[in-house]
Amino acid sequence: MIIKNGINIAREKAYLGERLNKEDALRLYEDNDLLYLAKCARAMKECKSGKKVFYIVNRHINLTNICSSNCPLCAFQCRAGDNRGYTLESEDIDKILAEVKNLKDLSEIHIVSALHPEKPFEYYVDVIKQVKTSLPDVNIRAFTPVEIVNFSRLSSKNIKEILEILITAGINSLLGGGAEIFSDRVRKIICPKKANAEEWLNVMKTAHQLGIKSNASMMYGHIETIEERIEHLIRLRNLQDETGGFQAFLMFPFHPLNTELGKEYNIKRIGAWEDLKMIALSRLILDNFDHIKAFWVMLTMPIAQLALTFGADDLDGTIGEEQIIHAAGSKEFKGITKKYLHKIITESGYEPVECDSFYNYKG
Predict the structure, then answer these.
(1) How does strand 314-317 pair with strand 52-56?
(2) Residue 43: CA atoms inside 13 Å, Cβ hemisphere, count?
(3) pLDDT-wise least confident of 45-59, 152-166, 185-199, 334-348
(4) What does the pLDDT look like over 128-150, one tens digit per residue?
């Protein structure tokens, strides 16, 4: 009877859009009523953004795959000296910028890479300056908190100093990657050498205090428990209560192909049911986030399209070229067109809205 009453209370809170605690979220997960979760999450999404679904014209740049962290969860990284390794230099960046300079409606350059063991912080600052000089009217969303912590270690500057230098160079917002799961137990296995949960959250708190907006994320479907997923989401919600600096949340299902973690633990890619359940639960738990992204590169476009009826209101963007997730076995396109995004959104019964990095409408 207690369990029954508990799920009834959780279902009612979800239906009314009230704040869920950890016990509520766990009960809703175990209840496994996917259509009820979708109904509640869709209602919350439509309270926040109506029938609109957002997208952006953007271009990803992955600066290097040579990494000192060598996380077992990552198929993109390689060690220095590996013949798969690459690092973009100034002339390489120039070629990319020349390709996109006349791209109609380009709103954002998205920059993320590995933790190169030899490239100094100045290399990354110079890249930002180079992009800003070439594309002064385009927003630069660059670097995860993991990279910011690495810059601090490389340069012996504190996090605030690093962020202030990057702001001066031209960044407009931070990426939300590298959060993985905030559980210390899990991080010791999947990413033992990179920034821990407290460092990730501290970077975001500092960035928000400096007026830098950011996204947030979670990687799920590996060795974490459901309780650890829920705790991760609540920690994000708590920081958002404090700073209000998160713009959107992204779900990253783990792609095990070509990863050490996948091989060691015999992990298979989780299914669409789990993806959609987590999208809906995230929408309900993160009641203080305005936007939930259905990141189609990770989810696949069919699941991302369905996610629009499970609480997501953002399909990210055209992307142009993505390497990190594809290294782990993603078969999705590396880039898509505005026309295709419009088709996907309108088929779902929603209104496509082109925006910039800050959800300002375009056109």
Answers:
(1) parallel
(2) 12
(3) 334-348
(4) 999 999 999 999 999 999 999 99
Tell me the one-letter amino acid at 152. S
Question: Which H helix or E strand runs over 363?
Answer: none
H helix intervals, the chain: 2-16, 22-31, 34-49, 90-100, 121-134, 145-155, 159-169, 184-190, 197-209, 226-243, 260-265, 272-285, 296-299, 301-307, 324-327, 338-347
Bridge partners, residue 352, by sequence:
53
Comparing CA positions, the residue from 179, 232, 172, 207 lying closest to residue 359 is 172
Task: Give DSSP secondary structure letters for 299-361.
Answer: H-HHHHHHHTTTT--EEEE--S---HHHHTT--S-S---HHHHHHHHHHTT-EEEEB-TT--B
Scan for tokens 């209840």, then name that residue: 31
Which helix (H) or strand (E) covers residue 54, if one does?
strand 52-56
Q: With contact defined as beta carbons under 8 Å apart, do 236 and 246 qualify?
A: yes
Tell me the C-alpha to C-alpha distance, in Å, between residue 114 and each of 71, 74, 125, 131, 229: 10, 10, 15, 19, 25
Band the pLDDT of 334: cuts 50, 70, 90: low
Report how far residue 147's alpha carbon sits from residue 168's, in angstroms, rounded to the nearest whole number: 17
CATH code for the structural domain at 50-354: 3.20.20.70
pTM: 0.94
Q: Which two tokens stand for residue 214?
A: 């950011």
> Which contacts qualify for 43-50: CB closer than 8 Å, 24 or more apart?
43/15, 43/17, 44/17, 44/283, 44/284, 44/287, 44/311, 45/283, 45/292, 45/311, 45/312, 45/313, 47/17, 48/290, 48/291, 48/313, 49/290, 49/291, 49/313, 50/351
**Dihedrals φ, ψ of 103, to 5°?**
-70, 120
Residue burial 324-354, b: 16+ Cβ < 10 Å; e: rest:
bbbbbebebeebbebeebeebbeebebebbb
